[in-house]
Amino acid sequence: MTDDTTTGPAVLDDPAEDPASAPADDPGDRTARAAAGADPRDLPPVRFWPALDLTAVDFDPVLAELMREGPVTRIRLPNGEGWAWLVTRHDDVRMVTNDTRFSRAAVMEQQVTRLAPHFIPVPGAVGFADPPDHTRLRRAVAPAFTARGVEAVRQRSAAALDALVDAMIAQGPPADLTERVLSPFPIAVICELMGVPAQDQERMHTWTQLILSSSHGAHLSEQAKDEMAAYFTDLVRERHDSTAEDVTSLLGAAVGRGEMTVEEAVGLAVLIQIGGEAVTNNSGQMFYLLLTRPELAERLRAEPELRPGAVDELLRYIPHRSAVGLSRIAMEDVVIRGAQIRAGEPVYVSYLAANRDPDVFPDPERIDLERSPNPHVSFGHGPHYCPGGILARMETQLMVDTVLDRLPGLRLAVPPEEVPWRRGALIRGPEALPVTW
Ligand code: HEM
């Protein structure tokens, strides 16, 4: 965090005055507003939020400045059009994300200002669906992601993790913890949960790496996505009358019962299969924290009973993503803390900001391994709450247990400032985590 206002967001001319950059809204409403003259609302300035290549676990200084400015501000991001509202307080974030007056499906119809350069919404994609469609898609796979469903893959996940750590130890230090453990482990776990047969897991690993890495070029990435989709199409079709509880069987059965189309099922399967990337990057930040603040790792080695709560505190603290994710569109006029949001206007929430709300988390900048209660929103809130939340916690706890206990002398193999960080990425994390022991 910094108080240096020069790193804060720049004020733009108010695009509310500029119809070309204003978000699309109901034409009738627009005419009425034009007749009424300039926007009569007392609007906060629009702040430009550039894409920053932040390193380590630094909190975004622009977001810090926006939080200081007020609970509801306005932002413009590097891509898309116009401006959007930004909501940062914990209770407001929970309200917006759990209120049907804010729609995800409506985002498909606008070029909302955004961080990501490309906006290729896939019709039927779970992130852009509203209830009841969204509920229908999520319900089909829900059993695999419950505590019981996740528990069913814990033993095999632990064995897979041990095998990866065995191999790393056998080869000897130094090693890249990301390459050897943090990247392959979530892929192995998700293959279990998806019901991908063991002999196909290597292929799945290769496709996932190609889809997620930009270094091989867009063409190879697209091709890998098509191949993965073709693979899941076959698997889902084969499993149309399955009663098993892995994700592809659940999807196959839902297609068999006519509850979703094959395309919807395959779209969801691909999204879930590559969702483990979030765990790789998030745990990369987590191990960076544990390796650069050895007092935290020592405490967790000495008091293992603290680990479940500590993982949640680290999840709260970690700046998981750059800027903000997907917006929502207000479907009617809504007032939040005095800010008059009009129907048709886009609204972003920041889960990262909500996790630092001092009214909910006393001394929010401090990592308190015993923080309780800890109602963080790192996995989101409301209907779009991350389906992988319980799974990600299980994976992260296994990695913390295994790595801390099996490698008592683990330390960074390079000075902290030489750890390479992902650049231009939506999800933040180390490119590699060179370690020795
Ligand atoms: C530490 C790891 C993870 C973090 C911090 C995380 C965080 C999030 C967040 C904040 C959201 C967005 C909520 C919103 O749109 O408002 C989300 C959505 C999602 N996540 Fe995760 N996630 C993680 C791991 C995973 C895993 C392992 C999977 C797959 C198994 C997964 C699959 C998804 C999917 C499919 C969505 C879209 C849900 C929807 O729109 O209904 N995530 N996640």
From TrEMBL:
Gene3D superfamilies: Cytochrome P450 (1.10.630.10). It comes from the Bacteria. Pfam families: p450. One of its GO terms (molecular function) is oxidoreductase activity, acting on paired donors, with incorporation or reduction of molecular oxygen. The keyword Transcription does not apply. Keywords: Heme, Iron, Metal-binding, Monooxygenase, Oxidoreductase. The keyword Metal-binding applies. InterPro entries: Cyt_P450, Cyt_P450_B, Cyt_P450_CS, Cyt_P450_sf. Transmembrane segments: none annotated. Residues 1-42 are annotated as: Disordered. Belongs to the cytochrome P450 family. PANTHER family: CYTOCHROME P450 YJIB-RELATED, P450, PUTATIVE (EUROFUNG)-RELATED. This is Biflaviolin synthase CYP158A2.
